[in-house]
């Protein structure tokens, strides 16, 4: 069973520029999936389509079996955007209330006890929280929505190494505890096997590689997932360069 | 980890939309500072109108107690001069120029015309633009409520509250200016007070808000949206006042002297011969070259040349009809703009 199913998915910005073109992929349920690729490979576009932030120009994408962007899909999908945008001027308590009033599914006690466990005071203004705390607050709000799918866009980009480890540990725990699925995008290849148990490598909208970390390692003669990903990306870049040179001729 | 993580569609409870009341609470929480600002502005103006209005009413009572109704046009007994002067001083007449006397019943309505524009711009500009420029739309739009409901829950209550508050202020202004209306200074239906009385003030506030909110989504920035809407609305306001309002109904056309009656809105005047052939204004005026500048020739003088002067005007009695016409188009335009704003939010690639 797949939690995200994209078929021939395409998104064009403006007249010519495609953010994603003819992308067909499946994100498995019940796992933490890392969506890896260089900048411009279409990760954010793919995730934005999955959470219904933007609409597809071509193809379809289903989330937990529902059309992305529909009321049903929105209800089941929690999204933490890059840099965890939240209302900076609100106290944490009111930020929770705002989120509670924007959702039908909401587990308030869970949010409060989770913040308590993290030592994030409810009285504190969101803007006064550290980067790591802000990311944890965004995650708390996302989890309080009791989603079936948790989508995180570049959650690691703004965090220092320690906060990264803590954050991804929280994600893994939540996925295990709630029996949900999570997918996150990243361009950081290092230590991926510690945070993701399934990897999809994206190069200019096309899936270059996908599989569990164990599968990838086994299929490539025991290389670490990091090495496997890097060589796939290099190959893809070289291929693209070759094509560009051909066009130039 | 198993594939059982996703319940089938059948076991899942059907998703319900988030109730409007909850979304309205969110709008309130996010805009209460802006609403407090608007309340402070309206409150300060309201306090001025209430206090001065009370003084005006007191002066009017003293004036009417002293001067019998039959003598009010001509002036009244000598002993009443202080009472008469005191009353008219609030109108800014009898004591030097209007500008010199500062805030008075003649200058206040003009200053009030800025309120709908400013109120609408400051409330409407940031209403959605703030979310777009700070990036929090990526949070707000991906919650269960959905962006369309969220935008509607933000715009509609704000629009209603602002329009209601503006209506309250214009009602207070009507009370403040009331003695001058009763005393016959402004006429019963004063066209010069068209924008600050009746429903017009509230309608312009609503329209300004809608324009600013639309600009906010279009420009995606709060401050440029506020600036742009102030410019556009000031221009529209002036054009409506100077050129549009007089065309809400076919004007009444009369010949003879200028139509008397305070509050009539003269649209145009021209000359013809008695048989109906137009005569240019220049021809008429050069024939009466000895007339002092700005003085129109009398009917008798025109009769010597077999000329007629014609007037077209909007009688003051059409005041309410015009209020409904202007309120109607402003309301329609506001609803269209709010709908367009929500549509833009719906379609906007983020």
Task: Give the arrangement of secondary structure elements.
The complex is a heterodimer of chains A (249) and B (350).
Chain A: E1 2-13, E2 17-28, E3 32-36, H1 43-50, E4 58-63, E5 66-67, H2 71-76, E6 77-80, H3 92-101, H4 108-118, H5 131-144, E7 149-152, H6 161-178, E8 181-186, H7 192-195, E9 198-203, E10 206-212, H8 213-219, H9 225-248
Parallel strand pairs in A: 3-8, 3-9, 6-7, 7-8
Antiparallel strand pairs in A: 1-2, 1-4, 4-5, 9-10
Helix pairs in contact in A: 4-5, 5-6
Chain B: H1 20-66, H2 81-89, H3 107-112, H4 114-134, H5 137-140, H6 147-182, H7 200-219, H8 222-244, E1 252-255, E2 265-273, E3 278-279, H9 281-287, H10 299-304, E4 307-314, H11 319-347
Antiparallel strand pairs in B: 1-4, 2-3, 2-4
Helix pairs in contact in B: 1-2, 1-4, 1-6, 4-6, 4-7, 4-8, 6-7, 6-11, 7-8, 7-11
Overview of the structural elements:
The complex is a heterodimer of chains A (about 250) and B (about 350). In chain A, about 40% of the residues lie in helices and about 25% in strands. Chain A is of the alpha/beta class and about 250 residues long. Chain A has a single domain, classed as 3-Layer(aba) Sandwich (Rossmann fold), CATH 3.40.50.300. In chain A, helix 4 runs antiparallel to helix 5 (about 130-145) and helix 5 runs parallel beside helix 6 (about 160-180). Chain B has about 350 residues and is α+β, with helices and mostly antiparallel strands. Chain B folds into 2 domains: about 20-250 and about 320-345, no CATH class; about 265-315, no CATH class. Helices cover about 60% and strands about 5% of the residues of chain B. Chain B has 11 helices and 4 strands, in the order ααααααααβββααβα. Chain B has helices at about 20-65, 80-90, 105-110, 115-135, 135-140, 145-180, 200-220, 220-245, 280-285, 300-305, 320-345; strands spanning about 250-255, 265-275, 280, 305-315. In chain B, strands 1-4-2-3 form a 4-stranded antiparallel beta sheet. The longest helix of chain B is centred in the N-terminal third of the chain and has 47 residues, at about 20-65. Chain B is globular and about 95 Å long. The two termini of chain B are about 35 Å apart. Residues about 95-100 of chain B have low confidence and may be disordered. The interface between A and B is large, with 50 and 37 residues.
């Amino acid at each position: 069973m797949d939690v995200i199913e994209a078929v021939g998915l395409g998104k064009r910005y403006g007249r010519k520029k495609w953010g994603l073109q003819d992308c067909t992929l499946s994100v498995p349920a019940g796992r933490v999936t890392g969506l890896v690729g260089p900048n411009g490979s279409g990760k954010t576009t793919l995730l934005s389509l999955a959470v219904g932030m933007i609409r597809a120009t071509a193809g379809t994408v289903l989330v937990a079996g529902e059309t992305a962007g529909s009321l049903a899909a929105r209800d089941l999908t929690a999204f933490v955007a890059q840099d965890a945008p939240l209302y900076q001027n609100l106290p944490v308590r009111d930020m929770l209330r705002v989120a509670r009033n924007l959702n039908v599914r909401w587990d308030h006690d869970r949010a409060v006890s989770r913040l308590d466990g993290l030592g994030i005071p409810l009285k504190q203004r969101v803007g006064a929280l550290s980067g790591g705390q802000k990311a944890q607050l965004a995650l708390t709000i996302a989890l309080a929505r009791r989603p079936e799918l948790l989508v995180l866009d570049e959650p690691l980009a703004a965090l220092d190494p320690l906060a990264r480890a803590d954050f991804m540990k929280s994600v893994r725990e939540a996925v295990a505890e709630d029996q949900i699925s999570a997918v996150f995008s990243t361009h950081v290849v290092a230590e991926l096997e510690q945070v993701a148990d399934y990897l999809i490598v994206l190069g200019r909208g096309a899936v270059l590689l996908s599989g569990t970390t164990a599968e990838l390692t086994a299929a490539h003669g025991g290389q670490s997932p990091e090495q496997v990903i890097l060589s796939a990306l290099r190959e893809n870049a070289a291929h693209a360069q070759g094509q560009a040179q051909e066009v130039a001729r | 980890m198993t594939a059982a993580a996703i319940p089938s569609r059948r076991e899942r409870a059907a998703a319900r939309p988030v109730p409007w009341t909850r979304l309205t609470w969110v709008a309130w929480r996010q805009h209460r500072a802006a609403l407090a600002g608007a309340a402070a502005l309206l409150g300060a103006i309201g306090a001025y109108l209430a206090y001065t209005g009370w003084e005006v009413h007191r002066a009017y009572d003293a004036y009417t107690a002293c001067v019998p109704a039959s003598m009010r046009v001509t002036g009244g007994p000598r002993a009443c001069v202080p009472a008469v002067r005191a009353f008219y001083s609030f109108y800014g007449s009898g004591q030097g120029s209007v500008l010199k006397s500062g805030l008075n019943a003649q200058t206040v309505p003009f200053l009030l015309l800025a309120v709908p524009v400013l109120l609408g711009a400051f409330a409407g500009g940031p209403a959605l633009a703030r979310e777009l420029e700070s990036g929090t739309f990526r949070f707000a739009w991906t919650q269960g409520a959905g962006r369309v409901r969220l935008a509607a829950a933000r715009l509609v209550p704000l629009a209603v509250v602002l329009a209601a508050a503006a209506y309250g202020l214009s009602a207070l202004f009507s009370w403040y200016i009331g003695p001058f209306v009763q005393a016959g200074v402004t006429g019963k239906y004063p066209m010069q007070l068209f924008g600050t009385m009746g429903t017009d003030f509230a309608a312009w506030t609503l329209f300004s808000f809608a324009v600013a909110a639309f600009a906010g989504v279009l420009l995606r920035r709060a401050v440029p949206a506020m600036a742009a809407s102030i410019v556009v609305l000031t221009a529209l306001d002036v054009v409506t006042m100077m050129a549009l309002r007089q065309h809400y109904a076919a004007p009444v056309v009369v010949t003879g002297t200028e139509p008397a009656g305070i509050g009539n809105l003269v649209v145009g005047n021209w000359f013809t011969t008695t048989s109906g052939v137009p005569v240019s204004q220049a021809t008429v005026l050069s024939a009466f070259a000895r007339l002092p500048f700005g003085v129109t020739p009398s009917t008798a003088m025109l009769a010597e040349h077999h000329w007629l002067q014609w007037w077209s005007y909007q009688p003051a009695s059409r005041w309410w009809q015009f209020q409904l016409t202007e309120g109607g188009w402003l309301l329609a335009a506001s609803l269209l703009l709010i709908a367009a704003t929500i549509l833009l939010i719906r379609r906007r690639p983020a």
